[in-house]
Amino acid sequence: MQGNRGSHNNHGPSRPGEQRKPGGTNTNGEQPEHCEGSSINEALTLDLQSFRKPGEKTFTQRSRLFVGNLPPGITEDELEKLFAKYGKANEIFINKDRGFGFIRLETRIIAEIARAELDDTPFRGRPIRVRFATHGAALSVKNLPEFVSNELLEEAFAAFGQIERAVVIVDDRGRPTGKGVVEFTSKPAARKALDKCGDGSYLLTAFPRPITVEPMDQFDEDEGLPEKLINKNQQYHKEREQPPRFAQPGSFEYEYAMRWKALMEMEKQQFEMVDRNMKEAQEKLEAEMEAARHEHQVMLMRQDLLRRQEELRRMEELHSQEVQKRKQAELRQEEERRRREEEMRMRSEEMMKRQQEGFRGNFPENREQDMRMHMGAMAMNRNSLGATSGAAGAAGLSAESTALMPGSGNNNNMPGGGQGGFPRGLPGTGDYGPNKQRRF
């Protein structure tokens, strides 16, 4: 803040009310409207672009100022004109009954400049008070893990609403303190985050360590409590009867000062003991959590193994069912093939039977042809035996041939039927040679 004040002195005095132009001031403490030179806001100009950071969010709650001890009857236009030097305001509110108001400027740095220059400045005979307004949508986050950054904190809480600022608090060495601040643009978003995260179940990292979210306590660490703001009542005058001093040993004050010191030492020891017990409990919890995490991973691996075994068993069942279906299909195909073969065999047998029946129906005609051929063969055999057989043999052969020739009787179609014939299968002994076989 001191650096900001020093850098802004180049633009003019830090108190606009302390400037004196020729012609003096009016009864209300304001500069006259028509005076030599320009007005205060015209004389003191700021290059607002030089106070804007790249990518900085504008008109946030952090750039909202509280203006107190305002004169009665002040209007919003007059308050805006008072802050016109610091750029256009986004929000202006005035409570005329209680004499205070709020104004929101573009950036935090500009608001700091306005607060430093206008605080305790006379305005219509009254020194106005300029302070930063409390942030109603700010939350305090505790128990943050070690590897949580500003970006991760903002990403984690962006699920509840739009965020103006998210900061992880670090110590003077840059080490995280486990605390952080999250500022939303609206109070409903902050209440939603507080309701959701208040049960301690919101985790930011893989380490199962829940964070603690609480409404942020607003402190004024810049101005503190000036002497002029203390209520100077009877108790104040009683306490201020003596200035600051050291208690003398052996005195009443020294005795009770030592007793207060002992009480504070005991309080310090109790806090240290509680901190030590809490640290031991945290270490024990972390060890138990690590063992439980290992056991949980083993359980998950077992469940995954059982699931894979169940899937393998189902796949084997499906495979066996598929194989059984294929076997049944093959059996059906084999039965169908056998049935077709049986039908073809029966058809072939039936056809052969029909052919045999047809052959038997034509047997007499075939028998007559066979007999003729047989008789011709016998004649040739007899001729080959020589002419010694004589006329009797020729006459007998002629008679036999005549008997075998078809006659005019009704029994010509019967094998062996008719007069002069011989039964079937009973030829004469002289008709065949010793090597001849019987022919049917």
Automatic annotation (TrEMBL):
CDD domains, per this entry? NOPS_p54nrb (cd12947)
Q: Does the keyword Transmembrane helix apply?
A: no
Q: Where is the composition biased (Gly residues)?
A: 415-431
| Annotated keywords | Repeat, RNA-binding
- Report biased composition (Low complexity) as residue ranges: 403-414
Query: Which molecular function GO terms apply here?
Result: RNA binding
Matching entries from PROSITE patterns are given as: RRM
Task: Spell out the Polar residues composition-biased ranges.
Answer: 1-12
Q: Where is it localised?
A: Nucleus speckle
GO cellular component assignments: nuclear speck
Q: Where is the signal peptide?
A: none
Task: Look up the domain of life of the source.
Answer: Eukaryota
Which InterPro entries does the record cross-reference, listed alphabetically? NOPS, Nucleotide-bd_a/b_plait_sf, RBD_domain_sf, RRM_dom
Please list the residue ranges annotated as the RRM domain: 63-135, 137-218
Pfam families assigned to the protein according to its UniProt record, in alphabetical order: NOPS, RRM_1
Renumbered to this chain, region (Disordered) spans 1-36, 319-356, 403-440
Q: Which PANTHER family match?
A: RNA RECOGNITION MOTIF-CONTAINING
Q: What is this protein called?
A: RRM domain-containing protein
Give the species this sequence originates from.
Gouania willdenowi
